[in-house]
């Protein structure tokens, strides 16, 4: 896959897929976007509201591993246990992963080792990283994946944008994801297209438009009743 390392507005790296001419994160700031959309408005909000001890997360698009690594960081010193299932159709190489500057932009104990451990974890099986985080990377497409009903508490929907990869955002695909969310579970994404909001509502989710990260007006969080 033709990938180019780029530096975004907050100094953190991202990748540019030159075939699609699409970046893995907002060019205004990769870490900033990931923290705002998935961690603050997704994971932290879910924890505040539900006070869970176990959380099952589905991520669509493992990519650089940034969301997984920030998730691991958030619960590192807590009693919460996370099982993190992440789908990726086109994994990046170890060489590219080791060049990403996230562990030098955000430092915490063993930040670099843990970042690389996520990348080096075997595919298609659960792997314990520290004691309270299990990563289960699935090398497959979202389209091929079958889920159980009510499997996940939280979904990080981080596919390429609808204008670049419309097949990821089709209602039939969103329906499959919605079915896999537990009652009171949540779906978060950086995308705030009107069509997406209408589709999520038509699937019975309660949809909120929230302020987006710097450079983006809105993002979406949807909750299952
Ligand atoms: C926006 S990027 C992911 C960003 C990622 N969460 C990160 O923090 O780097 C979208 C990702 O979806 C992956 N992808 C593309 N088609 C896919 C498919 N059909 N199923 C699952 N993942 C796919 C891409 O390879 C890419 O890694």
| Span of the ends, CA to CA | 39 Å
Which molecules are bound besides the chains? S-adenosylmethionine
CATH class: Alpha Beta
- Radius of gyration based on Cα positions: 16 Å
Strand order of the largest sheet: 6-7-5-4-8-9-11-10
- Which range best describes the helical content: under 10%, 10-25%, 25-40%, 40-55%, 55-70% or over 70%? 25-40%
Under CATH, the topology can be stated as Rossmann fold
Q: Give me the strand/helix succession.
A: EEEHEHEHHHEEEHEHEE
Query: CATH H-level name... which superfamily?
Result: Vaccinia Virus protein VP39
Q: Please report the total strand number as a whole number.
A: 11
Strand content is: 25-35%
Mean pLDDT: 97
């Amino acid at each position: 896959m033709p990938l180019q390392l780029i530096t975004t507005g907050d100094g953190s790296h991202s990748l540019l897929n030159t075939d699609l001419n699409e970046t893995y994160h907002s060019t205004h700031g990769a870490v900033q976007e990931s923290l705002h959309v998935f961690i603050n408005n997704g994971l932290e909000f879910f924890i505040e509201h539900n006070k869970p001890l176990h959380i099952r997360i589905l991520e669509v698009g493992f990519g650089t591993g940034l969301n997984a690594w920030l998730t691991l960081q958030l619960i590192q010193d807590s009693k919460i246990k996370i099982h993190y299932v992440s789908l990726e159709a086109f994994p990046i190489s170890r060489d590219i992963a080791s060049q990403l500057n996230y562990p030098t932009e955000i430092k915490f104990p063993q930040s670099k080792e843990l970042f690389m451990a996520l990348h080096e974890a075997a595919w298609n099986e659960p792997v314990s990283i520290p004691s309270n985080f299990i990563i289960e990377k699935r090398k497959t497409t979202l389209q091929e994946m079958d889920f159980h009903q009510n499997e996940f508490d939280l979904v990080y929907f981080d596919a390429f944008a609808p204008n670049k990869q419309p097949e990821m955002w089709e209602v039939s695909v969103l329906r499959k994801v919605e079915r896999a969310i537990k009652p009171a579970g949540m779906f978060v994404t950086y995308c705030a297209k009107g069509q997406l909001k209408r589709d999520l509502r038509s699937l019975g989710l309660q949809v909120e438009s929230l302020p987006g990260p710097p450079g983006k007006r809105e993002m979406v969080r949807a909750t299952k009743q």
